[in-house]
Task: structure prediction
Amino acid sequence: MRLSDIAIGVSMAMLALLLSYLIVYGGLGPIATLNLRPLAVSFLNYTYNPWKIVYSAMSPEAVTAIVWDFRGLDTYFETSVLFIAIVGLIALFRGANVVQGVSSKGLSIIVKTSTKLVAPLILVAGASLAFHGHLSPGGGFQGGSFMTVAMTLLAIAFSIEFFQQKKLTLNRLLAIRCIGLLAIVVVSVYLLVKAVLLGGYAYIFQNMPRINSQYSMPSWFLDRPLAGILFFFNLSESIAVIGGLTLGVVLLLLREEELKAIIGGGEHE
Amino acid sequence: MKKLTRFIAVFLYIYAFYIMFTASTTEFSLTLGFIASALLAALSTPFLIQRNLGAHDLKSFAYLLLYYFRYMIIEEYKAHKQVIKIVLSRKLDIKPAIVKVPYSVKTDYGMTLIAGSITNTPGTCVVDVDEKRHLFYVHWIYATTIEPEKAREEISKVFEEYAAKIFG
Result:
């Protein structure tokens, strides 16, 4: 046993001791009391409350209820910000396209076979996260990002030319992104349009019936709460995210040959 | 009909994973998962299975399950025993080398199964593959031999027997 080993052991023990001291005596900041603040009480009361549906989001998951119902408009603009970032990326790479037969044909056959076995499983797991966003942790963005992992694996193992061969062009990916965003818009004004056509009142981003509006999104699907717009928003958001992020990944994976024409052609004699 | 069998095989593969991942058997989860799995199976079947499936594939599947348990219990144990000895010994007793290991299976799946099995056991790791000459290049932490045939005997003989039975 060398001196350095002893020093490492002692310092590890000191670290554990100091951390436990800090935690026990509140050195990392005040420990939350058992009394809840009024805001937390109201969230807990109205997230899922079948007795007061006019105030409730009817979703067992508080975070999703807050994100897509209590502050739905805010989340919509957050989604728009990501979309604008993607638009900026497209503007930067305008005119670029995936060229066939440039250099690589992807990774080895072993990696390809494993990837094609795993990719559908990652996609279905992402879909599961998106479906259950209003019941358990997860949601549209998380599900969409999860699915993008599968698309990234495919793009790297099979090369981006593979997407082009399977007709998943840059424009198609953008179209998928736009369909997702459009679906969010449609869901958010659905009840409003219904009220205009049938008479009565409704709000944008309305989920359950409100005090002066009897219109409502479906609150149950088979044997579990559907939480109305929350489910549809999660689904649309996951579609928008998989389209947008995959587009971003493919653009960033473009090879020199494909970019020369766009960003290398600015030299003047 | 043949297309349908392939579709159903891929669908069951995806749907079974969905149920395990979701860990829920409510009608809500099962219905939505059914739709998503059917959609993904329709998209991925042409990539995953090209040949026609028959009754003998059930036998192959049984072999796959048998192989899984044999691999996880016996082969992993053997490989771990050797590596644990190296890790715990005071003097670093290793003989690292990259050896050629030939293989004779014909399908991509069989090859992937062998390569994955070699890599997943500690001590050996496939670093490259030569498809034309049917060779794996394997990094071996305690290379007892560098003869390709002997190395195959020591590293991948069991894996290959099962891979041939499962995927041909």
